[in-house]
Amino acid sequence: MRHILSVLLENESGALARVVGLFAQRGYNIDSLTVAATEDPTISRLTLVTRGDDQVIEQITKQLHKLIEVVKLADLSESAHIERELMMVKVKTTAEQREEVKRCADIFRGQIIDITANTYTIQVVGTSDKLEAFIEALSGIQILETVRSGVSGISRGERTLSL
Amino acid sequence: MTSQNTQPELLSGGAMLIRALADEGVEYVYGYPGGAVLHIYDAMFQQHQVKHVLVRHEQAATHMADAYARASGKAGVVLVTSGPGATNAVTGIATAYMDSIPMVVICGQVMSHLIGDDAFQETDMLGISRPIVKHNMSVRRPEDIPYLVKKAFYIAQSGRPGPVVLDIPKDMTIPSQKFPYEYPKEIKLRSYNPNAKGHPGQIKKALTTLLAAKKPVLYAGGGVILGQASDELTLLARKLNLPVTNTLMGLGAYPASDPQFIGMLGMHGSYEANQVMHNADVIFAVGARFDDRVTNATKKFCPNATIIHIDIDPASISKTINAHIPIVGLVKPVLQEMLHQLEKNQGELDQDALGQWWQQIQQWREVHGGRYDSSASHLKPQAVIEAVHRHTKGDAYVTSDVGQHQMFAAQYYKFDKPNRWINSGGLGTMGFGLPAAMGVKLHYPDAEVVCVTGEGSIQMNIQELSTCKQYGLNVKIINLNNGYLGMVKQWQDMNYDSRYSSSYMDSLPDFVKLAEAYGHVGIRVTKAEELEPALERAFALKDKLVFLDIHVDPTEHVYPMQIPGGAMNEMFLSKTERT
Ligand SMILES: Cc1ncc(C[n+]2csc(CCOP(=O)(O)OP(=O)(O)O)c2C)c(N)n1
Ligand SMILES: [Mg+2]
To answer: Which residue of B155, B191, B315 is in closest CB contact with A71?
Structure first.
């Protein structure tokens, strides 16, 4: 099962290394990881996508909790939540392909954010599934580069993860 | 304590560090100097509150600090230089980590501006130690030193204890740069709250379950000793008429001479302890972590048991074995609450069922009963431990190394008190025993301190005989010399048709002469009849370190031994018998 863990972390050097090290040490997977400071500069928020059965996820959350710098954490996938990932794709486009690429980007509510004589760079935002579907949809087009931000997530409704 | 007046004293980083240790109540620091910590050593030299013990290898410093912590319950302190000093400490840090031992390790580091340049004696000690510490920190500003020292002790000693590394770049301790010193009284961290007392509802549920049990067992581990809860545990076990087994780390948590004690459990546990566990209907686990050396195959583990598990570390609960009634909390307050609730509502024990259970246990006790072949012409290691127990009236601090001798010590030295049995259970570190004995002896000079070791293990830190001489650490070394890496040989006998691949200790030194060369007394024992007079003499020599080189049967194996891949109660009982 795929889980999205959201972690509030003391914004201190070494804290992130400890989180990442924990996953390596104990043989847990990281599918994606994003981290940045929050509105409170002493706190970072880290979103981590991992996989495992219930017992593994329980161990992961408990082990994360044990890290001294971890202030709070939640498994977003346990309740209603919104997840977003940003992707930028640079594709090679011949004159004939341009329309098709543009149409495809529109369908996925993507934006063309850079353009040269031979390339388009498209930005798409959505769930990881949607980003994968977009890549699928570009099947006839030569992809030069993709960059994904990793998943960020937040609970729906009034529920929050904050101090 | 030092700076209650209005003007805080001005101290250098090095002096602040030492003063903070003094304010923390630290009496001894174990360590070894080098370039990155010279300012600190100079500050140490200029005061008399904190004393320094110079070991001969940094690993020994960590084991000394660790054993002091195991015996006293307070964090031990280590001071080493950067680079090789720090890396030499790694085994000792990992040893403490695996057994949840509070320890503060202060490592020198190259100057801040050189970090990352592969400077002389630079290693990334924060990176190296990260997976084997409870926490680690580095000093960025000298004025933070008092706070960071306090924080290090707080983290090391609270909750589930563990080692904390404090990395100090050399420029943080420059003698000419002084700062106002104030030692914090208390530390609060928003991200760390270690004082769980246990959920009252869960505690009640646990009690109800125990009162209704027909075949209960209390399985108590090192957490009871770390949590200083032996008295509460003993009282509760008696009130509930529970058979009690201790893990290797928990020996002494419940008195071994008590009739309710059924021995150690697990790989080399007693026949009865492993049977009781396997057949129990309720397992009451206290400060124990269902380690693989206890459970044998987890799929076959105790099929009929409802499991109650008290632990301060939620990650230890349901990690390998699912707990039906988890209680997250410090062992002592949780047991106190159980005793309290028991007092309030006198529930009825099922005396009939318990009577039958004890009858069954009695029968199991008779099956193996810790027997060994005492008629053999060779001196048996088990007999040596029994004799040591007699000579020390069961009241010694016993440290051990790792191997067969360790298991014999665990099985045959009947520990009646907590904090007396000091061994590396989790990491299994050969070389632990001698420095551990030294750490205990330094703090308890009047106590009898015995190191049970093997000719393999003792050579991993034998240089410390020199430290013993310098500080008058008159421990008694019981070298169960079987001429083999015995535990390795036992596995080779059982699984590799006795092909002794590198398990034979060739070219052993003359340990008697070696002890003498270091200024100690050496006694060799090669025959059974020499044992008693040798022990007599050794323990009479109060102000001498005595190295007893005792030649024991090289063919002996440790039994019982769980059959790998089996259930708890599947065991070899001797070379020819199995369950
Ligand atoms: C540092 C270290 N290296 C290797 C081992 C693996 N090991 C476990 S027991 C053992 C043999 C110990 O021999 P000895 O000290 O003579 O004890 P004996 O088993 O003979 O009583 C070895 C090599 C270990 N536990 N620690
Ligand atoms: Mg040996």
So the answer is: B191
